[in-house]
Write a structure and sequence with these properties.
- This protein is mainly β.
- A hairpin with a 4-residue loop joins β34 and β35.
- The chain is elongated, with a radius of gyration of 46 Å.
């Protein structure tokens, strides 16, 4: 009977502890980065009244008889689920959206590291990023003079030197962007048929489209070594279409002629050798074919297929992406020689014309590698200083099969400026924003993860420390692997659910009341026993 009293007491103690956890959760419903806790229970001890026995040939086995002696706290677990993000608009307020903790330590690196989900940071008077409630410095990786970050070694305190001066940089490169149409244009032919009793010739003009863009004037600002601004204007003017020619000669009673340029023309040939000339115009790098096939049709529909010799191109003309003439090889038109005539020559009336169809297909490519400028551009600073050399960079242009476009110029110079603000990216990179419009990487916030977050120990001030069961911290950049992303200008809210806590509170209250009734009932039973004795009651 006395056991009932102590069992009831164990229940009171257990649910009183549960109520403490629930109360702590409700109290921290507005705490930044707070993670709620939940208690579990385990039965306490057992008193064995009878042990189990195995079955025999005459009877079955006997089960054990164990009397429980109460309840105890099994565990107090932390819920590390993501809390909601509340926007603050303050650049130094940070939140981890996902797995990971911010790393805090003394500014000089002494003492132990602690870990937190509370990212309400600020900059100290020395420019150190700190937790203002404890003064501990946020740990991370500093960038070198070139703005490069190396994530090696132990992270250190992050310093953002607001007011840091940036020297002016002279413009060294001008970048021109845009597209030079690399399409293969189909040449169009136009001409008239002609007739001759003994010999004749037809002339076709093949037009190749040139650049259609109008004159483009680009203006940009460049800077000298002192940061003084200068205006530079560049004019881009497309060239008119160029010209090329292709021709051929025919021999025999019926002269077979074929050439491989774009467009269709008709020639007339008689009993005497005839010469056919194609004249084309356009711009670009002409890619000629190496062999041509000709078809001749008589007026009665008879076709002749002569054996033709190989036509050798007479030359090439080259242009760059802006229609600028680069160079040419060769000077004479392309000539065709036919070395034989097929035996199935058509029989024609002496006075009847012969239609010779010449289909010309030429690949015209208007894109070529950009030509280097004859000399670098220059800016002459004041006071008769040496000229500043500026390279014109065409590497940002493209040669796609799309219309010609010309983008504005950009350059790599800037005036002097000072560090006035910062921004933090999802991987924790802190970008310093200068008054001259330049952006430079200053540092990167480190984030720690653990094999077992539940093994971390709470020490107050929204901080945790590692234990033997949490594992060693794995420190690195945010938004990589299983590490969450950093959100700037926001704080993580508590993940406490009031509805859940109120429900648990009702359960704890009822359990506590029931255990108290157990004690009261056991006490009444004892009083009944006492009243059985003579002279009592």
């Amino acid at each position: 009977m006395f056991d009932s009293l102590f069992i009831g007491v164990s229940g009171l103690n257990a649910y009183q502890a549960d109520m403490n956890v629930i109360s702590n959760n409700i109290a921290n419903v507005g705490t930044t980065g707070f993670k709620s806790q939940a208690m579990t229970f385990q039965d306490l001890l057992y008193q064995s009244l009878r042990f189990a026995s195995a079955p025999t040939q005459t009877n079955g086995g006997v089960n054990p008889q164990d009397l429980g002696l109460g309840v105890k706290v099994g565990s107090v677990d932390t819920d590390f689920s993501q809390g909601g993000l509340q926007t603050t608009g303050i650049n130094t307020d940070l939140a981890v959206n996902g797995n990971g903790f911010f790393v805090l330590a003394n500014s000089d690196g002494s003492g132990r590291q602690v870990y937190t989900r509370d990212g309400a940071f600020t900059l100290s008077s020395t420019g150190t990023l700190i937790d203002p409630s404890t003064g501990l410095a946020v740990q991370g990786y500093a960038a070198n003079a070139q703005g490069k970050i190396t994530q090696t070694g132990t992270p250190s305190a992050i310093t953002v030197p607001l007011g840091l001066a940036m020297q002016a940089q002279q413009t060294n490169n001008l970048y021109l962007g845009g597209n030079s149409d690399a399409s293969q244009y189909a040449a169009t032919a136009s001409g008239n048929n002609s007739q001759a009793a003994a010999a004749g010739a037809g002339v076709n003009t093949v037009g190749v489209p040139g650049p259609t863009a109008a004159k483009k004037v680009l203006t940009t600002t460049v800077y000298d070594s002192l940061g003084n601004a200068h205006q530079i204007t560049i004019s881009l003017t497309p060239l008119p279409p160029a010209a090329y020619s292709a021709g051929g000669a025919a021999y025999g009673t019926i002269d077979p002629v074929t050439s491989n340029v774009s467009g269709t023309s008709t020639y007339i040939a008689g009993a005497m050798p005839a010469t056919v000339t194609n004249t084309a115009s356009g711009s670009g790098a002409v890619k000629p074919a190496t062999r041509f096939a000709y078809t001749i049709s008589a007026v009665d529909g008879t076709s002749v297929s002569p054996a033709a010799g190989e036509q050798t191109p007479g030359g090439y003309v080259y242009f760059d992406a802006n229609g600028q003439f680069i160079g040419a090889t060769g000077a004479a038109p392309t000539n065709e020689q036919l070395t034989g005539v097929a035996t199935n020559a058509a029989t024609l009336n002496a006075n009847a014309p012969i239609n010779v169809t010449d289909t010309v297909a030429m690949a015209v490519n208007l894109w070529g590698p950009p030509n280097s400028p004859p000399s670098p551009g220059g800016v002459t600073p004041n006071n008769a200083a040496a000229p500043a050399t500026i390279n014109l960079d065409w590497t940002k242009t493209t040669g796609l099969a799309s219309p010609y476009t010309t983008a504005a110029l950009t350059q790599d110079g800037y005036q002097a400026g000072v560090l006035s603000n910062i921004s933090v990216s999802q991987d924790g990179t802190i970008q310093g924003q200068f008054t001259n419009g330049q952006v430079k990487t200053v540092a990167q916030v480190a984030v720690a993860t653990f094999a077992n977050d539940g093994g971390l120990q709470r020490i107050g001030s929204n901080e945790f420390v590692s234990t033997a069961n949490s594992g060693l911290p794995m420190v690195g950049a945010a938004n990589t692997g299983n590490t969450g992303a950093i959100v700037s200008g926001a704080l993580e809210q508590s993940n406490v659910s009031l509805a859940d806590q109120f429900t648990k509170m009702i359960v704890a209250q009822n359990a506590f009341t029931a255990n108290s009734r157990t004690i009261a009932t056991a006490d009444q039973m004892q009083q009944t026993v006492v009243n059985l004795l003579p002279g009592t009651g």
